[in-house]
Amino acid sequence: MSTMVRRRPADTGKASGGMAARRAVIRWAWRLFRREWRQQLLVVALLTVAVAVTIVGSAAAINIPPPGNSGFGTAADKATLTGTGPHLAAQIASLEHRFGRVDVIENQTQQVPGSISVYQLRAQNPTGPFGGPMLSLISGHYPSAAGQVAITPGVASELNLKIGQVWRAAGAARRLDPRTR
Questions:
Q1: Residue 15 main-chain phi, psi, to 5 deg
Q2: Are 180 and 140 in contact (CB under 8 A)?
Q3: Where are the strands (E) in 52-117, listed by range?
C-alpha cells in the first residue's frame, strides 16, 4: 500500500494575503526608511545638485556671447555694406578716407542643396590687416587665382566635392585646386 501526499496549490486570488500582505510590505518599507533615511536623503540631494548644475551649465553655455573679434577679426569696428558696382566701391573708398585702413571681406550665406544646412561663401585676403585671425589653413595653400577655392572638410563632405572638381556656387564656377583643401 502506498501513500501519496499532495500539496495544495497556493491561492492566487484576493484571499491570498490581500490587506495583511500590503500592511507587512508597508511596515517593512517604513522600517527601511527609518534606518536608512540619511543615505536616501544624500542620494536625493546629490541628484538635485547634479540636475541643477546641468541646467545652469547648459544655460551658461548657450548664453555666453562670442568673443568681440569673432565676426570681424581684430578690427575695432565693422561696417556691413550691400550692393555691387561703383556704388559699393564709392562706399568702401569713403570708409578708407574716414577711418584709414580697411579690410574688405565679401560674405554670402548659401544653402546646401536638398538640406537645411548652410555654409558661408567668403572672399577674403588671408593676409589682410584685420581678417587674418578668422582664417585657419589646415593643409595646402590659400587660393591664389580667381577660379580657385578653399573649402573646409565639412563643406566638401556636405557637397560631395573631391579635389580637382569644378564647384558651381553663387553663379560662378570654381575649381577645388589639388593643393587646396
A1: -80, 5
A2: yes
A3: 106-111
User: Rounded to whole angstroms, what are the CA distances from 69 to 37, 77, 131, 156, 179?
Assistant: 54, 9, 9, 26, 29
Q: Enumerate residue ranges in the chain where pLDDT < 50.
A: 180-181
Q: What pLDDT, on the 0 to 100 scale, is given for residue 160?
A: 84
Decide: 47 and 53 in contact? Cβ < 8 Å: no
The grid coordinates of residue 38 equal: 540619511
- In 3D, which of 90, 78, 152 has the Cα closest to residue 120? 152
Number of helices and strands (H, E) in the chain? 3, 5
Q: Which residue has the cell 526608511?
A: 33
pLDDT digits (tens, 9 = 90+) for 98-141: 988 888 888 888 888 888 888 887 888 888 888 777 777 777 77
Neighbours of 73 (CB within 10 A): 18
pLDDT at site 70: 64
Q: What cell numbers appear for 172 in the block?
A: 560662378
Cα–Cα distances in Å, from 177 out to 27, 71, 116, 132, 144?
A: 78, 27, 27, 21, 10
Integer Cα distance of 80 and 82 in angstroms = 7
Report the C-alpha gap between 13 and 71 in whole angstroms: 73
Which pLDDT value is given to residue 177?
67
* Beta carbons of 165 and 173 less than 8 angstroms apart: no
